[in-house]
Amino acid sequence: MKEKRKNMKTPKEWLEKHSKGEGVNLKKLKTKIHAKKFETKEKEVKFATEIAAKAEILLTEQKGYLENDPGETTTQFTQKDIANNVDITAATKSFDLKLEFGPYRYEIQYLNKYKSENYKFSRAKYTKNGRHLVIGGKKGHVAAFDWLTKKLHCEINVMESVHDISFLHIETMFAVAQKSWVYIYDNQGIELHCIKRLNKVTRLEFLPYHFLLASCSDEGYLSWLDVSIGQLVSQFNTNLGRLSILTQNPWNACLCLGHAKGVVSMWSPNSRDPLAKMLCHKAPISAIHVDPSGMYMATAATNRELKIWDIRKLEGPVQDYKLINAATNLAFSQRRMLATGSGNIVEIYRDCCNQAAKRPYLLHKFNNPIGNFNFCPYEDVLGVATARGFTSLLVPGSGEPNFDSYEANPFQSKKQRQESEVKALLEKIQPELITLDPSKILEVDVPTLRDKIEAKKKLLYVKPPKINYEPRNKAKGKGGSAKIARNKKILNEKARKEFIKATKDILPEVKKTKNMKKPFNVLDRFLPKKKQQ
């Protein structure tokens, strides 16, 4: 087997894809023992990268895109054309649900120079593995189901307005931001918890690796709730007014908020002040979303601008677009396709981050206003929540074709789900590690370390100052100063007792002299009465 592996040639592209960086320079190591240890480690790393690269042969699924003939554009293809030209399993992923308790949307903003009207509604979300879907309506309709098999888990009416909805770490629990508080339900529609400390919540985001349910409220509060222990990790007022635009950065788990002054702020539960602020637009921000890899961030404003930023640099925009209408919703796919929604039109752009996209990749028009949409993980599907229901659109090339079963398995059984939940709890990341650059945790703080070394060197050449003090008279012997204090106490007690004994004989005589009467004198009768007494 080893000879066969040596004879197999792996392409350089696959090796670069799975490489783990540059190795250790063995020449700089001083001792031979450490050199041997690192040499064996480097061999193991190279062997692991070769095996991972050779495993690419087993990944049979490949990404695909729509190709147009000369003189045509991909925007001419409708959903019917796509569904008729794909296999049966892919065609079943395109469907339309007509529901009565709408509108099923997130937030539609009709903004211009003269008027501003905000409509608050709910949204639809997929699970991490992309198998299950939960939707919520304005009038309180909440439903969770397996959208591939169309099997309904639960369908309830909470009898009050629903502002947002989100799955937790598994598909058997989901959180609903209702009129006053946040409620948690199971997949049978039974209410598990009512979190009254999260009131008037407008947006919900779940951080799967930290088990944190993040929320922003109508009163300007940011909250992080640890789902595993049921306690609030952090909650504070941002002092930025009403918060209605929220998304998370999957790379560092920071929350990104959009504000009316065109500023995007990034928050962590460890700081009451924002970790960073970016002036993205000169107009109020209407939508914001971060790429699943955490590299790019898309922002849209009411002045019809769409900008894409390299969120790692916090510098100028990578791409700048001018749309026909202001985008009220944005969503990135796993293959970095960007969907924009304005009014009742959805436009999907391909390769818009690295190079300027001249025209949309796909375009779809609805009869009702769009509320919210999300790309389904590991599927070429875009789920759109509208005013009259839910629609699943086919978008070829949007999802990752091959999935890692240890990370997210769409075909997992009940036992596998339980094991993955236990493993995720054991590997849970603490909220103290949420920072802008999580790679800095593994680095050595070189400036502070250098300052410490220089401070130690200075102490070697500094003479200690003279201190004037009176030396204490230490007692010799086993007892020390404690024994002297005890002896002093004993002597004082003895002196007090001797004084009391000596005064016992004198006290009675003194009392007698005080109580003795004066001798009688005959001439006293001629004195005044006061003196006689």
UniProtKB/TrEMBL annotation:
WD repeats lie at residues 278-312. Residues 360-438 form the BING4 C-terminal domain. GO terms for cellular component: nucleolus. It holds the Pfam family WD40. SUPFAM superfamilies: WD40 repeat-like (SSF50978). It comes from the Eukaryota. The keyword rRNA processing applies. InterPro entries: BING4_C_dom (IPR012952), WD40/YVTN_repeat-like_dom_sf (IPR015943), WD40_repeat_CS (IPR019775), WD40_repeat_dom_sf (IPR036322), WD40_rpt (IPR001680), WDR46/Utp7 (IPR040315). PROSITE patterns: WD_REPEATS_1, WD_REPEATS_2, WD_REPEATS_REGION. Keywords: Nucleus, Repeat, rRNA processing, WD repeat. It is found in: Nucleus, Nucleolus. GO terms for biological process: rRNA processing. This is BING4 C-terminal domain-containing protein. The lineage of its organism: Eukaryota, Metazoa, Ecdysozoa, Arthropoda, Hexapoda.
